[in-house]
Design a protein that fits this description.
The complex is a heterodimer. Chain A is 79% helix and 0% strand. By secondary structure, chain A is mainly alpha-helical. Classes of the chains: A mainly alpha, B alpha+beta. The interface between A and B is large, with 41 and 39 residues.
Protein backbone atom coordinates (compact mmCIF):
# COMPACT_ATOMS: atom_id res chain seq x y z
CA UNK A 1 0.00 0.00 0.00
CA UNK A 2 1.46 3.35 -0.98
CA UNK A 3 0.68 6.96 -0.09
CA UNK A 4 -1.32 7.29 -3.30
CA UNK A 5 -3.63 4.45 -2.30
CA UNK A 6 -4.53 6.44 0.80
CA UNK A 7 -5.17 9.53 -1.28
CA UNK A 8 -7.68 7.52 -3.30
CA UNK A 9 -9.36 6.20 -0.15
CA UNK A 10 -9.76 9.49 1.73
CA UNK A 11 -10.65 11.73 -1.21
CA UNK A 12 -14.53 11.53 -0.99
CA UNK A 13 -14.67 12.58 2.69
CA UNK A 14 -12.30 15.44 2.10
CA UNK A 15 -14.68 16.65 -0.63
CA UNK A 16 -17.59 16.91 1.85
CA UNK A 17 -15.45 18.86 4.34
CA UNK A 18 -14.54 21.29 1.61
CA UNK A 19 -18.20 21.84 0.78
CA UNK A 20 -19.22 22.51 4.37
CA UNK A 21 -16.26 24.83 4.89
CA UNK A 22 -17.20 26.72 1.75
CA UNK A 23 -20.79 27.24 2.92
CA UNK A 24 -19.70 28.55 6.31
CA UNK A 25 -17.14 30.87 4.79
CA UNK A 26 -19.59 32.20 2.18
CA UNK A 27 -21.53 33.81 5.04
CA UNK A 28 -18.33 35.24 6.47
CA UNK A 29 -17.26 36.51 3.05
CA UNK A 30 -20.58 38.26 2.38
CA UNK A 31 -20.23 40.17 5.65
CA UNK A 32 -16.58 40.95 4.95
CA UNK A 33 -17.31 42.30 1.47
CA UNK A 34 -19.69 44.93 2.85
CA UNK A 35 -16.95 46.25 5.11
CA UNK A 36 -14.22 46.19 2.47
CA UNK A 37 -12.60 49.53 1.46
CA UNK A 38 -13.82 50.69 -1.96
CA UNK A 39 -10.38 50.45 -3.65
CA UNK A 40 -10.03 46.79 -2.65
CA UNK A 41 -13.61 45.94 -3.58
CA UNK A 42 -13.32 47.52 -7.03
CA UNK A 43 -10.32 45.32 -7.85
CA UNK A 44 -12.36 42.23 -6.93
CA UNK A 45 -15.28 43.50 -9.00
CA UNK A 46 -13.07 43.92 -12.07
CA UNK A 47 -11.64 40.44 -11.52
CA UNK A 48 -14.94 38.61 -11.09
CA UNK A 49 -17.24 40.67 -13.32
CA UNK A 50 -14.93 41.45 -16.20
CA UNK A 51 -12.67 38.40 -15.86
CA UNK A 52 -9.66 40.68 -15.92
CA UNK A 53 -6.33 39.31 -14.77
CA UNK A 54 -4.46 41.32 -12.15
CA UNK A 55 -2.05 42.61 -14.81
CA UNK A 56 -5.00 43.66 -17.03
CA UNK A 57 -6.50 45.48 -14.06
CA UNK A 58 -3.20 47.33 -13.57
CA UNK A 59 -3.10 48.29 -17.27
CA UNK A 60 -6.69 49.47 -17.35
CA UNK A 61 -6.65 51.47 -14.12
CA UNK A 62 -3.11 52.82 -14.54
CA UNK A 63 -2.25 51.52 -11.07
CA UNK A 64 1.20 49.98 -10.54
CA UNK A 65 1.11 46.17 -10.68
CA UNK A 66 2.39 46.02 -7.09
CA UNK A 67 -0.55 48.13 -5.91
CA UNK A 68 -3.07 45.83 -7.59
CA UNK A 69 -1.38 42.77 -6.08
CA UNK A 70 -1.34 44.27 -2.59
CA UNK A 71 -5.02 45.31 -2.86
CA UNK A 72 -5.93 41.75 -3.82
CA UNK A 73 -3.85 40.33 -0.96
CA UNK A 74 -5.29 42.81 1.55
CA UNK A 75 -8.84 42.09 0.41
CA UNK A 76 -8.36 38.32 0.63
CA UNK A 77 -6.78 38.51 4.05
CA UNK A 78 -9.61 40.75 5.30
CA UNK A 79 -12.08 38.22 3.91
CA UNK A 80 -10.09 35.53 5.72
CA UNK A 81 -9.53 33.45 2.61
CA UNK A 82 -7.10 30.86 3.96
CA UNK A 83 -4.20 31.44 1.60
CA UNK A 84 -0.88 31.65 3.39
CA UNK A 85 0.98 34.65 1.97
CA UNK B 1 9.65 23.43 1.79
CA UNK B 2 9.17 26.56 -0.27
CA UNK B 3 5.64 26.55 -1.62
CA UNK B 4 3.74 29.72 -2.14
CA UNK B 5 0.97 30.27 -4.63
CA UNK B 6 0.60 34.02 -5.18
CA UNK B 7 -3.02 34.89 -4.23
CA UNK B 8 -3.41 37.10 -7.31
CA UNK B 9 -2.52 34.16 -9.58
CA UNK B 10 -5.07 31.89 -7.89
CA UNK B 11 -7.63 34.70 -8.24
CA UNK B 12 -6.82 35.02 -11.97
CA UNK B 13 -7.34 31.27 -12.29
CA UNK B 14 -10.61 31.33 -10.32
CA UNK B 15 -12.09 34.01 -12.58
CA UNK B 16 -10.93 32.29 -15.77
CA UNK B 17 -8.41 35.03 -16.62
CA UNK B 18 -5.40 32.75 -17.00
CA UNK B 19 -4.39 31.48 -20.46
CA UNK B 20 -4.59 27.70 -20.93
CA UNK B 21 -0.91 26.83 -20.20
CA UNK B 22 -0.92 28.89 -16.97
CA UNK B 23 -4.32 27.46 -15.99
CA UNK B 24 -2.86 24.00 -16.49
CA UNK B 25 -0.06 24.79 -14.03
CA UNK B 26 -2.47 26.19 -11.42
CA UNK B 27 -4.90 23.26 -11.82
CA UNK B 28 -1.99 20.83 -11.44
CA UNK B 29 -0.85 22.66 -8.30
CA UNK B 30 -4.41 22.45 -6.89
CA UNK B 31 -4.50 18.70 -7.57
CA UNK B 32 -1.26 18.27 -5.64
CA UNK B 33 -2.36 20.47 -2.71
CA UNK B 34 -5.80 19.19 -1.59
CA UNK B 35 -5.42 21.14 1.69
CA UNK B 36 -5.81 24.30 -0.41
CA UNK B 37 -9.18 23.29 -1.90
CA UNK B 38 -11.04 24.96 0.98
CA UNK B 39 -9.28 28.27 0.38
CA UNK B 40 -9.92 27.94 -3.34
CA UNK B 41 -13.64 27.34 -2.72
CA UNK B 42 -13.70 30.45 -0.48
CA UNK B 43 -12.08 32.45 -3.26
CA UNK B 44 -14.76 31.29 -5.71
CA UNK B 45 -17.56 32.19 -3.33
CA UNK B 46 -16.41 35.83 -3.36
CA UNK B 47 -17.75 36.05 -6.93
CA UNK B 48 -21.16 34.79 -5.83
CA UNK B 49 -21.32 37.17 -2.86
CA UNK B 50 -20.38 40.15 -5.02
CA UNK B 51 -23.17 39.24 -7.41
CA UNK B 52 -25.74 39.05 -4.60
CA UNK B 53 -24.71 42.45 -3.27
CA UNK B 54 -24.60 44.18 -6.64
CA UNK B 55 -27.14 46.78 -7.72
CA UNK B 56 -28.89 45.82 -10.97
CA UNK B 57 -27.32 47.61 -13.92
CA UNK B 58 -28.42 48.08 -17.53
CA UNK B 59 -26.50 45.83 -19.92
CA UNK B 60 -25.65 47.05 -23.41
CA UNK B 61 -26.16 44.75 -26.42
CA UNK B 62 -22.38 44.49 -26.85
CA UNK B 63 -21.96 43.67 -23.19
CA UNK B 64 -24.59 40.95 -23.43
CA UNK B 65 -22.88 39.41 -26.47
CA UNK B 66 -19.56 39.44 -24.61
CA UNK B 67 -21.15 37.81 -21.57
CA UNK B 68 -22.75 35.09 -23.67
CA UNK B 69 -19.44 34.52 -25.47
CA UNK B 70 -17.77 33.98 -22.12
CA UNK B 71 -20.24 31.21 -21.33
CA UNK B 72 -18.89 29.30 -24.32
CA UNK B 73 -15.36 29.38 -22.98
CA UNK B 74 -13.75 26.24 -21.77
CA UNK B 75 -14.46 25.42 -18.14
CA UNK B 76 -11.11 25.13 -16.41
CA UNK B 77 -11.45 24.14 -12.80
CA UNK B 78 -12.99 20.72 -12.59
CA UNK B 79 -11.72 18.35 -9.95
CA UNK B 80 -11.69 14.96 -11.58
CA UNK B 81 -12.19 11.85 -9.48
CA UNK B 82 -8.94 10.06 -8.69
CA UNK B 83 -8.10 7.20 -11.05
CA UNK B 84 -8.67 3.58 -10.14
CA UNK B 85 -4.98 2.93 -10.66
CA UNK B 86 -2.74 5.28 -8.67
CA UNK B 87 -0.74 7.57 -10.92
CA UNK B 88 1.90 10.18 -10.23
CA UNK B 89 0.34 12.36 -12.94
CA UNK B 90 -2.11 14.89 -11.41
CA UNK B 91 -5.58 14.62 -12.94
CA UNK B 92 -5.45 18.08 -14.55
CA UNK B 93 -2.44 16.96 -16.59
CA UNK B 94 -3.78 13.59 -17.68
CA UNK B 95 -5.76 14.86 -20.70
CA UNK B 96 -2.45 16.31 -21.95
CA UNK B 97 0.14 13.65 -21.13
CA UNK B 98 -1.76 10.50 -20.13
CA UNK B 99 -1.35 8.76 -16.80
CA UNK B 100 2.24 7.50 -17.10
CA UNK B 101 5.05 9.80 -18.14
CA UNK B 102 7.38 6.84 -18.73
CA UNK B 103 5.52 6.26 -22.00
CA UNK B 104 6.14 9.76 -23.37
CA UNK B 105 8.63 10.57 -26.09
CA UNK B 106 11.11 12.56 -24.03
CA UNK B 107 13.72 14.62 -25.83
CA UNK B 108 17.09 15.39 -24.35
CA UNK B 109 18.54 18.82 -25.08
CA UNK B 110 21.24 18.82 -22.41
CA UNK B 111 22.73 15.67 -20.87
CA UNK B 112 20.63 14.71 -17.86
CA UNK B 113 17.68 16.91 -18.79
CA UNK B 114 14.76 15.58 -20.80
CA UNK B 115 11.76 17.52 -22.01
CA UNK B 116 8.31 16.62 -23.26
CA UNK B 117 6.56 19.57 -24.84
CA UNK B 118 2.83 19.71 -24.06
CA UNK B 119 0.51 20.75 -26.85
CA UNK B 120 -1.78 23.61 -25.90
CA UNK B 121 -3.99 25.82 -28.03
CA UNK B 122 -2.35 28.98 -26.80
CA UNK B 123 0.65 30.51 -28.64
CA UNK B 124 3.38 32.49 -26.93
CA UNK B 125 3.79 29.95 -24.14
CA UNK B 126 5.82 26.79 -23.78
CA UNK B 127 4.41 24.19 -21.44
CA UNK B 128 6.49 21.10 -20.88
CA UNK B 129 7.38 18.31 -18.55
CA UNK B 130 11.02 18.34 -17.52
CA UNK B 131 12.77 15.28 -16.14
CA UNK B 132 16.09 16.02 -14.49
CA UNK B 133 18.63 13.37 -13.52
CA UNK B 134 19.51 13.08 -9.80
CA UNK B 135 22.07 15.69 -8.77
CA UNK B 136 22.03 17.36 -12.19
CA UNK B 137 22.39 21.13 -12.19
CA UNK B 138 20.32 22.86 -14.84
CA UNK B 139 22.20 25.37 -16.97
CA UNK B 140 22.14 28.85 -15.46
CA UNK B 141 19.29 30.70 -17.13
CA UNK B 142 17.07 33.74 -17.07
CA UNK B 143 13.69 34.26 -18.72
CA UNK B 144 12.33 36.94 -20.97
CA UNK B 145 8.96 36.30 -19.34
CA UNK B 146 7.65 34.43 -16.31
CA UNK B 147 8.39 30.80 -15.59
CA UNK B 148 6.02 28.72 -13.49
CA UNK B 149 7.34 25.44 -12.18
CA UNK B 150 5.24 22.81 -10.40
CA UNK B 151 7.11 19.82 -8.97
CA UNK B 152 5.41 16.51 -9.84
CA UNK B 153 7.96 14.07 -8.43
CA UNK B 154 11.26 14.29 -6.58
CA UNK B 155 12.59 17.72 -5.74
CA UNK B 156 15.03 20.47 -6.68
CA UNK B 157 16.90 23.25 -4.96
CA UNK B 158 17.79 26.67 -6.24
CA UNK B 159 18.70 30.08 -4.84
CA UNK B 160 15.08 30.52 -3.64
CA UNK B 161 14.87 27.30 -1.62
CA UNK B 162 13.85 23.64 -1.69
CA UNK B 163 10.95 22.58 -3.90
CA UNK B 164 9.32 19.14 -3.46
CA UNK B 165 6.23 17.42 -4.96
CA UNK B 166 3.35 19.90 -5.06
CA UNK B 167 5.54 22.99 -4.70
CA UNK B 168 5.21 25.89 -7.12
CA UNK B 169 7.92 28.40 -7.99
CA UNK B 170 7.42 31.53 -10.04
CA UNK B 171 10.50 33.13 -11.54
CA UNK B 172 10.31 36.36 -13.52
CA UNK B 173 12.84 37.97 -15.85
CA UNK B 174 14.75 39.46 -12.91
CA UNK B 175 15.64 36.01 -11.58
CA UNK B 176 18.84 34.30 -12.69
CA UNK B 177 18.65 30.82 -11.28
CA UNK B 178 20.33 27.45 -11.32
CA UNK B 179 18.04 24.64 -10.16
CA UNK B 180 19.77 21.44 -8.97
CA UNK B 181 17.76 18.21 -8.96
CA UNK B 182 17.56 16.16 -5.76
CA UNK B 183 20.75 14.04 -5.52
CA UNK B 184 18.83 10.81 -4.81
CA UNK B 185 15.60 10.89 -6.81
CA UNK B 186 16.01 13.68 -9.35
CA UNK B 187 13.00 15.73 -10.37
CA UNK B 188 10.04 15.70 -12.71
CA UNK B 189 8.24 19.00 -13.05
CA UNK B 190 5.77 20.92 -15.16
CA UNK B 191 7.27 24.14 -16.46
CA UNK B 192 5.27 26.88 -18.17
CA UNK B 193 7.15 29.72 -19.81
CA UNK B 194 5.60 32.87 -21.18
CA UNK B 195 8.74 33.35 -23.31
CA UNK B 196 11.63 31.04 -24.25
CA UNK B 197 14.40 30.46 -21.69
CA UNK B 198 17.66 32.29 -22.24
CA UNK B 199 20.65 30.28 -21.16
CA UNK B 200 23.68 32.22 -20.01
CA UNK B 201 27.33 31.30 -20.35
CA UNK B 202 29.17 29.03 -22.79
CA UNK B 203 26.74 26.13 -22.62
CA UNK B 204 23.87 28.52 -23.19
CA UNK B 205 25.58 29.88 -26.27
CA UNK B 206 25.71 26.36 -27.69
CA UNK B 207 22.23 25.24 -26.72
CA UNK B 208 20.13 28.35 -27.31
CA UNK B 209 19.75 27.89 -31.09
CA UNK B 210 18.02 24.56 -30.50
CA UNK B 211 15.43 25.65 -28.02
CA UNK B 212 13.93 28.51 -29.97
CA UNK B 213 10.46 27.80 -31.25
Amino acid sequence: LTAQDFEVLIEPERGQDVELEARQSAIQIAAGLEALPEDQKSVLLMAFYQEKSHSEIAEETGLPLGTVKSRIRLALSRLKVGLAV
Amino acid sequence: MTNSMPPELLLDYATGATPEPVALAVATWLDLNPEMHGAYAQLNSIGGSLLEQAEPVAVSAAGLTATLARLDREVQHVFVAPPAVPSLVPSALRPYVGSDWENLRWKSWVSGVEEYVIETRRHGYRASLLRIRPGKAMPMHTHAGDELTVVLDGAYNDEAGHFGRGAIEIADSAVLHRPIADPLVGCVCLAVLSAPVQLTGMLGWMVNPFIHH
